[in-house]
């Protein structure tokens, strides 16, 4: 069902179709057949769906609060520097805030992209590679961020 | 009182209701070419007639090779869903006058299914998804000697989803289905909903488990395309949400 209206086979190859030699149908790359429902156990999709809703609500508070503090209150962007960050992370409250925001935002975004890949990547191989890349990037960012928050040393030279 | 009647007939025939409408049909015939072409047909038609009547005029008077499905012609069998002016509708329920007859009326097969010829698509994946949700009454134990009784309130619970005529207008308007034919699609979920919420049925748990799968209800993005497309006015997106809610609340 493409919008392409030109013949896919050029005249050189002899594009003549008739009753005995019909043109090929353009079939969907993934379509439902009798074998499709390989029932997968567990509730992963449901958990992912619920997580998106719940983390979304929490993230609205976390991210808007974060933006407000970082960009508007008390001098705005210009105040941000090493000292400012060090000062905030001295308090466990802001450590937990940032940690929570990091984990929720990364997992929320990762799951969103996973859905997009599932919806749009047609070939199994493409899906595999894109998701592999996505998961690697997510795990890397989460681990690195967590490491920084926990091992942050304000007296570093 | 014969004279006034005669007068009236004369007046009506004087002002002919017929207008000329252009039908722009997307055609594909694998026995002629592998290319899709848009073909225009000029049809004399009363604007109070339906798109299906126009297609009949084309098939009967202009070009007998035009291929489409229709059976009842009264919006009940669900065989003539097609994309008319870019929207999925039943040709037999769409009046010409509701479509702006000054411009050409475009008619295409429904999207997301393999086109076999002109407006005829392969409905097999659609019906496979329908079969997969087990759209039949499942009960345990002995069969009662009398009919299975149900209160009007219990009947009301799933009344909306009993109206489906399996036309595929909803499923073939769903972007998730276009991109990924593995998704059950709105129609299958609607027909599962019809049994899940039926107080006489005992297979609800099984059906919910089927729809809990990775190609089940969680792929719905609440686009509302299906609700817009349904010629029976079923609130499809709501039905899908009710299945989701049942899945979440039944365990917790
Ligand atoms: S739910 Fe509506 S649009 Fe979908 S198949 Fe049934 S009647 Fe057609
Ligand atoms: S022909 Fe039966 S629904 Fe239109």
UniProtKB/TrEMBL annotation, chain A:
The keyword Glycoprotein does not apply. GO terms for cellular component: membrane. InterPro entries: SQR/QFR_C/D, SuccDH_FuR_B_TM-su. Keywords: Heme, Iron, Membrane, Metal-binding, Transmembrane, Transmembrane helix. Its main location: membrane. It comes from Streptomyces filamentosus (Streptomyces roseosporus). The chain crosses the membrane at residues 50-73, 93-113, 133-152. This is Succinate dehydrogenase. One of its GO terms (molecular function) is metal ion binding. It is found in: Membrane.
From TrEMBL, chain B:
Residues 154-176 form the 4Fe-4S ferredoxin-type domain. Gene3D superfamilies: 3.10.20.30, Alpha-helical ferredoxin. Binds 1 [2Fe-2S] cluster. Its cofactor is [2Fe-2S] cluster; [4Fe-4S] cluster; [3Fe-4S] cluster. InterPro entries: 2Fe-2S_ferredoxin-like_sf, 2Fe-2S_ferredoxin-type, 4Fe4S_Fe-S-bd, 4Fe4S_Fe_S_CS, Beta-grasp_dom_sf, Helical_ferredxn, SDH/FRD_Iron-Sulfur, Succ_DH/fum_Rdtase_Fe-S. Pfam families: Fer2_3, Fer4_10. Its EC number is 1.3.5.1. Coiled coil: none annotated. Belongs to the succinate dehydrogenase/fumarate reductase iron-sulfur protein family. This is Succinate dehydrogenase iron-sulfur subunit.
């Amino acid at each position: 069902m493409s919008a392409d209206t030109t013949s896919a086979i050029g005249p050189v190859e002899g594009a003549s179709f008739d009753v005995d030699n019909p043109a090929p149908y353009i079939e969907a790359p993934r379509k439902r057949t009798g074998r499709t429902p390989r029932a997968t156990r567990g509730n992963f999709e449901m958990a992912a769906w619920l997580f998106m809703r719940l983390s979304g609500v929490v993230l609205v508070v976390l991210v808007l609060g974060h933006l407000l503090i970082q960009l508007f209150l008390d001098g705005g962007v210009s105040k941000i520097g090493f000292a400012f960050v060090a000062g905030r992370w001295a308090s466990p409250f802001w450590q937990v805030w940032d940690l929570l925001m990091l984990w929720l935002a990364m997992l929320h975004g990762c799951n969103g992209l996973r859905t997009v890949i599932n919806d749009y990547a047609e070939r199994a191989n493409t899906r595999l590679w894109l998701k592999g890349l996505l998961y690697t990037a997510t795990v890397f960012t989460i681990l690195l961020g967590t490491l920084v928050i926990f091992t942050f040393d304000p007296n570093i030279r | 009182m014969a004279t006034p009647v005669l007068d009236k007939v004369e007046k009506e025939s004087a002002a002919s209701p017929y207008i000329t409408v252009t039908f722009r049909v997307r055609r594909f015939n694998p026995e002629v070419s592998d290319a899709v072409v848009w073909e225009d047909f000029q049809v004399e038609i009363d604007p109070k007639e339906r798109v299906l009547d126009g297609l009949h005029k084309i098939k009967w008077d202009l070009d007998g090779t035009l291929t489409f499905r229709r059976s009842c012609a009264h919006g009940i069998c669900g065989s003539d869903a097609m994309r008319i002016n870019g929207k999925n509708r039943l040709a037999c329920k769409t009046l010409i006058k509701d479509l702006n007859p000054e411009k050409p009326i475009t008619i295409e097969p429904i999207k997301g299914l393999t086109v076999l010829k002109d407006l005829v698509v392969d409905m097999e994946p659609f019906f496979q998804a329908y079969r997969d949700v087990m759209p039949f009454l499942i009960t345990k134990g002995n069969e009662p000697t009398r009919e299975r009784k149900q209160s009007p309130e219990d009947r009301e619970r799933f009344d909306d989803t009993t109206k489906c005529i399996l036309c595929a207008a909803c499923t073939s308007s769903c972007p998730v289905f276009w991109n990924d034919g593995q998704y059950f699609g709105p129609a299958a979920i609607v027909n599962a909903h019809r049994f899940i919420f039926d107080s006489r049925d005992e297979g609800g748990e099984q059906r919910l488990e089927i729809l809990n799968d990775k190609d089940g209800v969680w792929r719905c993005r609440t686009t509302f395309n299906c609700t817009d497309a349904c010629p029976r006015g079923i609130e499809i997106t709501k039905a899908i949400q009710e299945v989701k809610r049942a899945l979440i609340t039944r365990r917790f």
